[in-house]
Each structure stands twice: as structure tokens, then as C-alpha cells.
Design a protein that fits this description.
This protein has 162 residues and is of the alpha+beta class. The chain has a single domain, classed as Alpha-D-Glucose-1,6-Bisphosphate, Chain A, domain 4. 24% of the residues lie in helices and 44% in strands. The protein has two helices and seven strands. The chain has a seven-stranded antiparallel β-sheet, with helices on one face. A hairpin with a 3-residue loop joins strand 2 and strand 3. Helix 1 packs across helix 2. Belongs to the ribosome association toxin RatA family.
Length: 162
């Protein structure tokens, strides 16, 4: 059962990253293997969407429920499709230099063939997916803002170091 957890400091605000991840309908524009997305219903704090993923000869559609706990957490749970289960959580924590993003995904396909196929490339696929979100942030919000690095105080010169 593939599981992946990742933590990254990203130089955008939590609300910017939250909005980017919550915009499920735009996933096919930038996420590898996401060939289509259809948001069935959406309220301020929840959406239900169908996503189609394709890799190699495989193409699968699944439905997920996305809980939007703005601006800090997005929780994805599985509704219907090729998985036994799917759990995905994004957490956005403000930091002085941007946002600390925690990403967690855990799933299992019903098909042993699909499970074996994804198992070979799973970790690389998840890294590519997280990187795709970072590129999308740059495309939407521009280059990350420059954050000044605090200067270290310069002490008096020590004797004998001239």
C-alpha cells in the first residue's frame, strides 16, 4: 500500500497554496497523469470531484470528497472508483519565509496489476506531483518573493588575525 509523506518550505503564503490545491478543476492543466477533472459539487468547505488519471496503458476515473478547512488543511477522501481506499492530506503552516507544506497520501488499488504498476514508480510520481504544484504556484503567483536574510552581527576583530 503506497504511502508518502513530504514536508517542504515553499515561499508562498498558506492562502495562496491552499487556493491552488483547492482548485481541483484546473489539475489537468499542470498535473502529470491527470487527464481530466470534473467538479460535481462545491460549497465553501467541501467539493466532490471526478478525476481521471492515466499512465501507460492505464486510465482510471475516481470520485473523491475534498474537505476545505481554509486556510490550513485540505483532506481528500475516496468515494468511488478503482481504489480500495485513498487518503490524502495537505497542511499549510505559515512560516516567516513562506509556508511549510505537509503532504500525505496513502492508497491501495483494487487491481493487483494496477497496484504493481504504480508501485514501481510511486515515490517518483509523488515527487513530480508536488513539484508540479510548486511550478503552478510560480506560474499563477509569479516568482517567490525575496525574503531578506538576517545579517549576522560582525564582532570586533580578534588580536593576531590581522
Amino acid at each position: 500500500m503506497p504511502t508518502h509523506a513530504e514536508r517542504r518550505l515553499i515561499a508562498y503564503s498558506p492562502s495562496q497554496l491552499f487556493d491552488l490545491v483547492a482548485d481541483v478543476g484546473k489539475y489537468p492543466q499542470f498535473l502529470p497523469w491527470c487527464t481530466s477533472a470534473r467538479v460535481r459539487t462545491r460549497t465553501a468547505d467541501e467539493l466532490v470531484a471526478d478525476l481521471t488519471i492515466g499512465f501507460g496503458p492505464f486510465r482510471e476515473t475516481f470520485t473523491s470528497r475534498v474537505l476545505l478547512e481554509a486556510p490550513n488543511t485540505i483532506r481528500v477522501s475516496y468515494e468511488k472508483g478503482p481504489f480500495r481506499y485513498l487518503n490524502n492530506v495537505w497542511t499549510f503552516t505559515p512560516e516567516p519565509r513562506g509556508c511549510l507544506v505537509d503532504f500525505f497520501v496513502d492508497f491501495e488499488f483494487r487491481s493487483r496489476l494496477l497496484q504493481a504498476a504504480i508501485g514501481v514508480v510511486f515515490n517518483e510520481a509523488v515527487r513530480l506531483m508536488v513539484s508540479a504544484f510548486i511550478r503552478r504556484a510560480r506560474d499563477i503567483y509569479g516568482p517567490p518573493p525575496a525574503v531578506p536574510v538576517p545579517q549576522q552581527p560582525v564582532g570586533p576583530a580578534k588580536a593576531g588575525n590581522a
